[in-house]
UniProtKB/TrEMBL annotation:
Taxonomic classification: Bacteria, Pseudomonadati, Pseudomonadota, Betaproteobacteria, Burkholderiales
Enzyme Commission (EC) number: 1.2.7.4
A Pfam family per the record: FAD_binding_5
Molecular functions (GO terms): anaerobic carbon-monoxide dehydrogenase activity
Cited SUPFAM superfamilies: CO dehydrogenase flavoprotein C-terminal domain-like, FAD-binding/transporter-associated domain-like
Protein name: Carbon-monoxide dehydrogenase medium subunit
Top enzyme category: oxidoreductase
Domain of life: Bacteria
All copies of domain FAD-binding PCMH-type, residue ranges: 1-168
UniProt keyword terms in alphabetical order: FAD, Flavoprotein, Oxidoreductase
Length: 263
């Protein structure tokens, strides 16, 4: 690593000042610290958000779950309110990475990083969640902008994410065994306003699949999902899986997710 200083603010306001001045926010550190060890990233100042208690809360507010940006994956997976109100979200959190990642990784860190194969962005997008920052509120549909790119401005900090509680939801993924990232992950959520389907691991960032959404709005059944042709032309193809294979996975995992959501 290159030399750096470490700041530990006790409030969001203090953290925001440091971040605005050029400090690099440190959430769970599961991506940033690894990048620093490889000398792929060399921030001169880290702003550790771990000491800001107000960023770690999890509460249920009517038909919405409000989860703090510094809530660890393990905390989300084990929280009684999340397990009761939104079990698909708790299940997703319980299967992220390995034990160390779940113990240290955070919701806000994952969403801000926006790895194209991360699990959490699919839940945020499929839920039509709202990302709350120290400056504003951003709809999920406007937040994710491509490979490791989001709508966050320089120095802007995620403070919480608001998840509307769906009628039904489920997350299915096929894990790449070496990295534990999904080759493809599919999160479906059904609301009174309609079904939302978000795909991770298959493209240049998380995305919604309108064809699957339209079919499932007509008939929320595995058969309806199976009838949708998945275009492979814009999907990833690499040493782990070809684009046609990922297209097939999207179809198969969506069918499984619908079947599980129906119970």
């Amino acid at each position: 690593m290159y030399p750096f200083t470490l700041e530990r603010p006790a409030s969001v306001a203090d953290a925001a000042k440091l971040a605005t001045a050029g400090g690099k926010p440190l959430a769970g550190g599961q991506t940033l610290l690894a990048s620093m060890k490889l000398r792929l990233s060399a921030p001169e100042q880290l702003v550790d958000l771990g000491g800001i208690a107000e960023l770690a809360g999890i509460t249920k507010d009517g038909d919405t779950l409000v989860i703090g940006a510094m809530a660890r994956h393990l905390a989300v997976a084990n929280d009684a309110a999340v397990k009761a109100a939104y079990p698909a979200l708790a299940d997703l959190a319980s299967r992220i990475g390995d034990r160390q990642v779940r113990a240290m990784g955070t919701l806000g860190g994952s969403v801000a990083n926006n790895d194209p194969a991360a699990c959490y962005p699919s839940a945020v997008l499929a839920s039509g969640a709202t990302i709350v920052t120290d400056k504003r509120e951003i709809a999920a549909d406007d937040f994710f902008q491509g490979l490791f790119t989001t709508a966050l401005e320089e120095g802007e900090l995620i403070t919480a994410i608001r998840f509307p509680i769906p009628k039904r939801a489920h997350y299915e993924k096929l894990r790449q065994k070496a990295s534990h990232f999904p080759l493809v992950g599919v999160f479906i959520a059904q609301y009174d306003a309609g079904v939302r389907v978000a795909i991770t691991g298959a493209g240049n960032g998380v995305f919604r699949h309108t064809g699957l959404e339209d079919a499932l709005n007509q008939s929320f059944t595995p058969e309806a999902a199976a009838a949708v042709k998945i275009d492979a032309s814009d999907l990833n193809s690499d040493l782990h899986a070809s684009a046609p294979y990922r297209a097939n996975l999207i179809s198969v995992l969506t069918q499984r997710a619908v079947r599980a959501a129906l119970g």
